[in-house]
Amino acid sequence: MTTKKFIKRSLVISGFTLLLLLTILCVHVYMATRPHAPDPDAVAMARIDVKQVITQADADKITACLYQQNGIDHVLCNPQTGVAVFTYYPAKTTADLIINAFKSQSDYKITRFIPSAADLAKGCPAMSNHSLTYKVYSFFKHIF
Amino acid sequence: MKKAFLLTCLCGLVIAASSVSSCKKSDSTTATMTLYDSLGGTTMVSDPTATGTMIEKGRLGLRSVVDSTIFVIAADTSLSVYFATLLSEVSASPQNLSGFTALSKNLTDFFCVATGAKNFTYSGKSMSAAHDPSQNSRMGMKADSTAFNHFVSDLVVGAQKCGLSNQLIGQVGVVVNSVKSQVVQR
Questions:
Q1: What is the rounded distance in angstroms from the CA atom of residue A111 to the CA atom of residue A102?
Q2: B134-171 b/e with 16+ CB inside 10 Å = b?
Q3: Least crowded by CB within 10 Å, which of B11, B45, B69, B79?
Q4: Cβ–Cβ of A123/B85 closer than 8 Å?
Q5: Helix axes B145-161, B57-74, angle to 10 degrees
Q6: Is pLDDT above 90 for B59?
Q7: Strand partners, A112
Q8: Which of residues 103-162 of B touch A (CB under 8 A)?
Q9: What is the pLDDT of residues B115-153, one digit of tens each?
Q10: In this structure, is the dihedral angle defined by the CA atoms of residues B139, B144, B147 and B148, taken in order, positive or negative?
């Protein structure tokens, strides 16, 4: 009788402890992975496709115009491909704000290139998405 | 006479020892001089992209080349398809990195290790596994020689934009070409 009681009590305490630890783990993971305001020094990249033939002079104009926008870090426009890429500070602005401002200040026919989710999944192999950290992060990201 | 002889011997020994040690020093310096050292090595300088942060000069040089090359690749439609993740925005991951920053960090780590840096590690897959679609689902298809050569020419353009000398570009090219057989798998 006493042994049964002891086992029962042990099981209850163990279960309670496990539940408590699991809750703490969940809270910790949530706190670590919840959306944060971007770091002031963080930069992101965006791409504009120019829907017309452009020359080097056009590329220089596009570059200069993009550099005038608030929150721009670096710009490169390739006249051969008609693609302009730029990095910006997400803490200060968004790619859409920059592109809208650019559209209002120039006559170039442009569209923002946004890769599909499938394209993003086929990114550079140097960025492994098979790491344990990435898998744990993705798991909890889907839960929350 | 004896004293003078002993003194001469002692002087000779000291000169010989110092010349041996100086030879040894210069030999070992030459032998251990890596491409990373040529780019500035472990000398700490302030990081122009992160206020109040210091960075090794060698890493800063390599990161500049990597970032410049990333821009060239992102604007090159024949290669940008492999690098769509560049355009992902700052994620909510613990690292708080955008696709651009994450790729910049990983490639810089790779080049640091490949050029002889001691204080960094590359934690990504091996070049062979990373470019094999059966081992890496993010690799849509096997890379061919044309894509590899395109990458190299974009790297040269990126390095030139950073003002890297032709000699150093050549050395970086040697490092990149050393993994060609692992990257090109068809």
A1: 11
A2: eebebbbeebeeebbebbeebbbbbbebbebeeebbeb
A3: B11
A4: yes
A5: 120
A6: yes
A7: A48
A8: 103, 106-107, 110, 123-125, 130-131, 136-140
A9: 999 999 888 788 888 888 888 766 767 888 998 999 999
A10: positive
pLDDT at B55: 95
Q: Do A126 and B99 touch (CB under 8 A)?
A: no
For residue B53, give the DSSP letter.
-
* H or E stretch at B16: helix B2-32
Tokens of B121: 């590690």
Which residue in the block uniquely carries the two structure tokens 């829907």? A51
Which residues touch B176 (CB under 8 Å, ≥6 apart)?
A: B151, B152, B155
**Considering CB atoms only, which of B82, B123, B137 is closest to A124?**
B82
At residue B95, the pLDDT reads 59
| 8 Å CB contact between A84 and A63 | yes
Q: Which residue has the tokens 């690292």?
A: B95
